């Protein structure tokens, strides 16, 4: 069974069997990431928001890992950063809540963040959605890394 | 009370949101802490703060009455409100206090039971479970209940599975619990969906008002009630839906078993009380039918069958788990009779049983820590080998049976009197019978511990080897608490009566 | 009978719910049980979302006010229901007296949360299945129970 982390990418004749996949992935992955940010920022006035955008962004990273190998993906998005990202997102969300509470008013009452209530709500929603995006992206990537890094014990013929 | 003057005003008012938010944020930070001792210390500090906040809120509630806190500044029914009233204040104190006691116990226990690189995530999951349980109890919005119910349940699945380092059956127990727990939570959310269809709102007080206007509602409300009772019944281990509980309590790490035994089913029972008496009303015909036939019927059957099953267990933790199912039957009997006195007795048993069962699990965990004891036959001579630990186990065990001057006696007597006053004489007989069954399964352990000879290894008697101090303090605190409640029961009985009066009206 | 067919969304929800529950109870394979659980949870999502639809209603996205203007007496046609947003531009709000009928967005928000909960449960279930595979070398439930039964008979590792 091929080890996902050290699969050679070309056979002994130098032909890459996955050239079609690689070319299309190189074209698509940035577009998927861009779409994720579109969904993120349009969550205010349309369908979308943090969770959907986070999953789409994680999907782009996972596609990269599937096409180019888990080792390459781990070089680009190191697992340590992913773990810190999970905490950062929660702190962003919770921190916004606590900030609101410090500025007066209840927990998660965004009205005091800006010069009037409407601007405050706008900033508050942007901040918490950013927190949700960070957490969801990093959690999805972490789950993929956790499952993908398990060494399989049976060879391909036994499956 | 004069103690409240030392507490800043913002804590009294914003306390409920603090209870929800602090453990959630600190869980995320604790998960990435590199040093295990620092992770324990942060959990210790957080649970201490939560206990202080919970006591503050309870005292403030006793002074001021029901308080409503609007999250985000949005007024209900559009926003989520956190409600503190006489029904959930004691449960909040119970959950926060139990988490604090268990964290003290966890310092030596996790060294023995959990791998080093998993200890920081263990404390993070523990904090998430506490956050979920507290959030479930504090909120006044029905869907928010589901969200926090699932937060606590998912972290519980993880915590139970962490017992796999000690006993590999923890993994299949955790998987079984996951499947059944998710089905239960999904049934609950189906019920909430039907309630939303009927009333158009998610705020529990608003739902109660609209259902009262509709005089019980149409068939949609009946279906909603059925789904909610079954969903919560699965979480609180009502008789035929209890099959996840023995595995989850027996194979999880000891601090987790003690914490779950004292809080998870109790929080679900609080939710059952809230939905049955506050959102729906026992004056509606279908609610009265369910109370009388299903809750009482399944409660009584659970009491007898689970006590009988407990007698036949060889593993002491499984025995205590089946005993928990039986005790939940007592509480359901109290709720099902649906008079103020009986609901107060059921609520009192909720609080007392948490103290008793946690004490028993902590003592048992200390015995495992020193000698690897899990089976009943290994209790021989434990009275001489671990006198202090066995002492705590004895006190909590006697309280479970219902010996006078212990907490168990107070709640069983209250329940028996309430059943007698309501004319349910056969229920009093059932309570007596199950107490005798409890005497059998706890009594044989006490007999073999005090009257059996200690085992011998290579001809020498095993020397006395007591549990570490960090384990002795929590278990003796709980054992003394059950004696104190048994002797001077007015505070808890008063709290339970106030809760029942909130639900049913005085008298 | 036509009443039954006009409420076809509930029929589909019930069919999916029962199918999901049957898969959970009847499957011996751990991953198939999780798949059944997902089908069961999906039926609940459908239940919530289909009740959010209002007949003749717009998707719940605020429409721009394209100038309903005033009538001949000078009264605004949509009095009290036009709001100026933070970025400028007015939107038509829902509510009684509004000119536009919107579907209910609240169940959609509830289901977003429920979907996240379902994803978390599924990921933990799969992680547990991977661990069970490593320890028991099988993911068939009857083989796991048989291994546990033997384990129970031998007692805990002494």
Any idea what the radius of gyration of chain C is? 26 Å
- Which two chains form the greatest contact, residue counts included? B-C, 30 and 34 residues
Helix vs. strand class of chain A: mainly alpha
Fraction of residues in H or I helices of chain C: 55-70%
- Low-confidence blocks of residues of chain C: 78-82
- Main sheet of chain A, how many strands, which sense, barrel? none
Q: Rough shape of chain C? A: elongated
Distance between the termini of chain A: 10 Å
Tell how many strands the DSSP assignment of chain C holds.
3
What would you say this structure looks like, in words?
- The complex is a heterotrimer of chains A (159), B (507) and C (158).
- Chain A has helices spanning 19-41, 50-68, 70-76, 79-102, 117-148.
- Chain A has one domain.
- The N and C termini of chain A lie close together (10 Å).
- By secondary structure, chain A is mostly helical.
- With 507 residues, chain B is mostly helical.
- Chain B is 76% helix and 2% strand.
- Chain B has helices at 9-31, 36-64, 89-113, 119-138, 142-161, 169-199, 204-213, 219-235, 244-251, 254-279, 285-311, 316-337, 340-371, 382-385, 387-401, 407-421, 425-451, 469-487, 490-504, and strands at residues 67-70, 81-84, 456-457, 460-461.
- In chain B, the strands form two sheets. Chain B has a two-stranded antiparallel ribbon. Chain B has a two-stranded antiparallel sheet with strand order 3-4.
- The longest helix of chain B is centred in the C-terminal third of the chain and has 32 residues, at 340-371.
- Chain C has two domains: 1-53 and 104-158, Helix Hairpins, CATH 1.10.287; 57-103, no CATH class.
- Chain C is built from five helices and three strands; from the N terminus they run αααβββαα.
- Residues 78-82 of chain C have low confidence and may be disordered.
- The chains are: A mainly alpha (159), B mainly alpha (507), C mainly alpha (158).
- The interface between B and C is medium-sized, with 30 and 34 residues.
Features of this protein?
heterotrimer; B: 507 residues; mainly alpha; 4 strands; 76% helix; C: 158 residues; Helix Hairpins; 3-stranded antiparallel β-sheet; 3 strands; 5% strand
Secondary structure elements and their pairing?
The complex is a heterotrimer of chains A (159), B (507) and C (158).
Chain A: H1 19-41, H2 50-68, H3 70-76, H4 79-102, H5 117-148
Chain B: H1 9-31, H2 36-64, E1 67-70, E2 81-84, H3 89-113, H4 119-138, H5 142-161, H6 169-199, H7 204-213, H8 219-235, H9 244-251, H10 254-279, H11 285-311, H12 316-337, H13 340-371, H14 382-385, H15 387-401, H16 407-421, H17 425-451, E3 456-457, E4 460-461, H18 469-487, H19 490-504
Antiparallel strand pairs in B: 1-2, 3-4
Helix pairs in contact in B: 1-2, 1-4, 2-3, 2-4, 3-4, 3-10, 3-13, 3-18, 4-5, 4-10, 5-6, 5-10, 6-7, 6-8, 6-9, 8-10, 9-10, 9-12, 10-12, 10-13, 11-12, 11-17, 12-13, 12-17, 13-15, 13-16, 13-18, 13-19, 15-17, 15-18, 16-17, 16-18
Chain C: H1 2-6, H2 8-26, H3 30-52, E1 63-64, E2 82-84, E3 90-92, H4 106-136, H5 141-154
Helix pairs in contact in C: 2-3, 3-4
């Amino acid at each position: 069974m091929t080890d996902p982390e050290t699969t050679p990418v070309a056979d002994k004749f130098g032909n890459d069997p996955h050239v079609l996949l690689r070319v299309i992935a190189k074209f698509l992955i940035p577009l998927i990431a861009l779409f994720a940010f579109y969904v993120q920022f349009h969550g205010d006035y349309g369908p979308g928001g943090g969770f959907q955008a986070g999953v789409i962004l994680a999907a782009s990273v996972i596609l990269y890992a599937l096409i180019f190998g888990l080792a390459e993906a781990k070089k680009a998005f190191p697992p340590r950063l992913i773990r810190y990202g999970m905490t950062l997102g929660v702190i962003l969300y919770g921190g916004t809540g606590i900030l609101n509470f410090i500025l007066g008013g209840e927990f998660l009452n965004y009205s005091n963040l800006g010069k009037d209530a409407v601007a405050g709500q706008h900033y508050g929603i942007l901040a918490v959605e950013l927190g949700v995006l960070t957490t969801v992206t990093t959690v999805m990537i972490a789950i993929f890394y956790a499952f993908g890094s398990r060494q399989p014990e049976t060879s391909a013929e036994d499956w | 009370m004069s103690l409240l003057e030392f507490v800043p005003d913002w804590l009294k008012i914003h306390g409920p949101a603090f209870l929800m938010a602090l453990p959630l944020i600190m869980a995320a930070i604790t998960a990435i802490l590199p040093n295990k001792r620092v992770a324990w210390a942060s959990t210790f500090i957080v649970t201490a703060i939560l206990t202080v906040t919970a006591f503050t809120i309870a005292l403030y509630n006793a002074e001021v009455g029901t308080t409503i806190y609007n999250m985000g500044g949005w007024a209900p029914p559009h926003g989520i409100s956190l409600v503190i009233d006489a029904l959930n204040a004691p449960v909040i104190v119970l959950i926060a206090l139990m988490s604090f006691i268990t964290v003290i116990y966890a310092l030596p226990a996790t060294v023995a039971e959990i791998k080093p690189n998993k200890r920081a995530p263990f404390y993070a999951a523990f904090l998430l479970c506490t956050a979920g349980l507290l959030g479930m109890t504090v909120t006044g919005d029905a869907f928010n209940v589901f969200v926090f119910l699932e937060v606590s349940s998912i972290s519980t699945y993880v915590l139970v599975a962490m017992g796999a380092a000690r006993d590999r059956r923890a993994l299949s127990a955790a998987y079984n619990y996951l499947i059944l727990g998710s089905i239960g939570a999904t049934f609950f959310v189906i019920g909430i969906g039907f309630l939303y269809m009927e009333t158009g709102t998610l705020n529990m007080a608003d739902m109660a008002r609209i259902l009262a206007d509709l005089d019980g509602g149409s068939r949609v409300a009946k279906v909603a009630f059925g789904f909610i009772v079954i969903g919560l019944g699965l979480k609180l281990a009502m008789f035929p839906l209890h099959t996840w509980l023995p595995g989850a309590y027996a194979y999880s790490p000891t601090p987790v078993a003690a914490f779950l035994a004292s809080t998870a089913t109790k929080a679900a029972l609080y939710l059952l009380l809230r939905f049955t008496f506050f959102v729906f009303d026992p004056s509606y015909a279908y609610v009265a039918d369910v109370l009388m036939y299903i809750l009482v019927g399944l409660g009584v059957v659970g009491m007898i069958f689970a006590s009988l099953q407990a007698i036949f267990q060889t593993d002491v933790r499984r025995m205590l788990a089946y005993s928990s199912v039986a005790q939940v039957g007592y509480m359901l009997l109290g709720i099902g009779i649906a008079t103020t006195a009986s609901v107060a007795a059921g609520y009192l048993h909720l609080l007392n049983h948490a103290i008793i069962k946690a004490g028993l699990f902590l003592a048992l965990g200390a015995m495992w820590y020193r000698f690897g004891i899990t089976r009943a036959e290994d209790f021989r001579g434990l009275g001489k080998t671990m006198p202090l630990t066995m002492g705590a186990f004895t006190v909590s065990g006697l309280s479970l049976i219902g010996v006078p001057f212990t907490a168990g006696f107070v709640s069983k007597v209250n329940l028996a009197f309430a059943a007698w006053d309501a004319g349910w004489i056969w229920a009093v007989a059932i309570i007596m019978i199950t107490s005798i069954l409890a005497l059998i399964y706890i009594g044989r352990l006490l007999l073999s511990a005090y009257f059996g000879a200690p085992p011998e290894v290579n001809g020498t008697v095993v020397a006395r080897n007591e549990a570490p101090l960090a384990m002795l303090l929590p278990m003796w605190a709980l054992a003394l608490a059950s004696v104190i409640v048994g002797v001077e029961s007015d505070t808890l009985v008063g709290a339970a009566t106030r809760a029942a009066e909130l639900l049913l009206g005085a008298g | 009978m036509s009443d039954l067919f006009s409420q076809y969304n509930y029929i589909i929800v019930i069919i999916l719910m029962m199918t999901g529950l049957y898969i959970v109870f009847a499957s011996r394979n751990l991953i198939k049980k999780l798949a059944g659980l997902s089908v069961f949870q999906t039926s609940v999502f459908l239940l919530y979302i289909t009740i959010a639809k209002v007949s003749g209603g717009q998707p719940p996205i605020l429409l721009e006010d394209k100038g309903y203007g005033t009538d001949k007496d000078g009264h605004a046609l949509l009095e009290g229901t036009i709001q100026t947003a933070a970025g400028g531009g007015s939107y038509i709000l829902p509510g009684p007296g509004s000119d536009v009928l919107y579907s209910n967005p609240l169940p959609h928000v509830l289901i977003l949360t429920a979907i996240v909960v379902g994803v978390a449960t599924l990921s933990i279930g799969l992680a547990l299945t991977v661990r069970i595979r490593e320890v028991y070398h099988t993911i068939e439930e009857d083989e796991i129970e048989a291994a546990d039964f033997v384990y129970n008979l031998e007692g805990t590792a002494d």
